[in-house]
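Inputs:
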Amino acid sequence: MIALHQLNRGLMIALILICALWLAIPFTYAVLWSLVDPAEPWTPDNLLPPVMSFYRWEFAWQNSLLQPALLNSYTLAPTAAVMTLILATPTAFALGRYDFPGKETAKLVALLPLVVPGFVTAIFFTSLLYQLGLAQYRFFAILLAHCILFLPFAIRILTVSFEQVRQDHIDAARDLGAHPFARFQVAYWPALKPGVMATLLIVFIQSIEEFAIAYIVGQPGFVTVPTLLYSSLGQDFNRPNAAVLSLILLVPNVILMLILERFLKSANPALASGKG
Amino acid sequence: MPAISIIDVVMRFDRFTAVDHVSLDVEEGEFVTLLGPSGCGKTTLLKLVSGFLQPTEGRIEIEGRNVTGVPPEARNTAMCFQSYALFPHLTVAENIAFGLRQKRLPAAERRDRLADVTGQVDLGDHLPKLPNQLSGGQQQRVALGRALAVRPYVILFDEPLSNLDAKLREQVRYEIRKITRDFGLTAIYVTHDQSEALAMSDRIFVMNGGRLEQSGAPEEIYRHPRTRFVADFIGSANVLDAEVVGEIGPNLWQVTTALGPLAVSSETGPAARRIPVAWRPETARDGAAAHNTVEAVVRHRSFQGHFTDLIVDAGTTTQRLQLPRSAAREGAQITFSIAPEDIAFLEPDA
């Protein structure tokens, strides 16, 4: 017993260490690289950059396309999140609240787009956008693409949420004279809230990070943070600039993930009722 | 005028008929029970009265008004759900006041009614708590309070005690009965538990296979079951197939059964030559008597405190009897007797 306990402890510590290294090393490197001063290159014989400054950050802010990219990304992502939520709700409602033949298959089919590699979808989806003549409205084309691309996540999450709405709560509300809106407030919303928040955040994060479609449809005039990042890794490869951009991309996502975690942890109160 | 009239109601789901031509009346202030095994249509019938289902055929009247087609939110009924269906994110007070808010009652009146109901269901200290901080019995009382607060004309119970432990069940049973009596409420109570039905009801409607088998006061249902099903479902009577030999005295009939020849006392006499007869386990008497003395071998014995339950082999059949005091061990030979008045003719099988 004691040996097993110690083994467990050891494995646990190892796991924590690996995770810490896995996350901490790239992150530390990104921070260090973003602080490298252009006058003094960081050579392999140095453990730390010889001179550190915020030059790269200032440069990125003033001279690159960072400002329009941030504006585009942070307009696109919340809009995509809200639109995806709206588009996914009817399907999720049907999958979560009704029984019909082929329901399980429909659920599976709704998830299927996720197995196709992003770039493949992107190439064919953009060709469709061009054929439909929508590609010229770059913002809306990308928005539409993001909504469709991330619908499976939204449908999946919201279906589970709708399944968790308890029919007896709806019935009790009706029985006590509640009209549709009051019924929604008291029976649906408490069960749906975590799912709605999770959907919004996940689509937001996915949209902020999406590269393929934003790049193919957007280039050359329309930039988002990821397309800017990739181009600084590609045609004008510059590791310190890429470090700055990846941090700009990463930090808000980490914060949002932490918020998401809190929402998912604040367990669905509808499930916590006594005998339920 | 009856408080509730169910008139020739049929409820079909696809090809399954859940309620099959049921008609019944409930008088104002009456506490009635729909009793039957699961799938007998009792809960469906309750949902038809509350408005969650609309009948395929027939009509339902509440307070003399035809409510067929009226949705639950517009009916003057309130339901206590089996799961309680308390809103988990609302406090006890908010749960109880929920129906009053929907009715847009002024705040002062809401407060008065809340205080009133809280006193009735004894929840004074728990008002600011959330449902999951309460015990099962307390949650049950919140559900009852929430239904009472809207002052419904009819209160409906869907197996409200099935999630409570046995001891609490008896206590809440008594409370429900007291409260409905105090409020003068008309109540329909659905249960599969015959002892609940017998203890609480003014009248019991026994249902089976979507049909009404028998209705009557608890004593009547218990003492004079009309059908094989009712005799067996309530109090698990011994039912025997009998063949009538003839009348052997005033209101006394001789029959042959698997238990041997028996004398049955009946004012009306048997309705057919081949007819089921029933007797209750607790009517068996230890020892021989003038009529219906039976020799038996004890197969199984279980001591229940105030009586001993015996499964015995007698004649060519197995019967159950309950004797107040019996030292008979398994395998022992015993003699018992049944008074002719304790055996009843049932309706002949269709």
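Chain A touches chain B at residues 166, 168-169, 171-179, 182, 186-187, 190, 269-276 (CB under 8 Å). Flag for discussion at group meeting.
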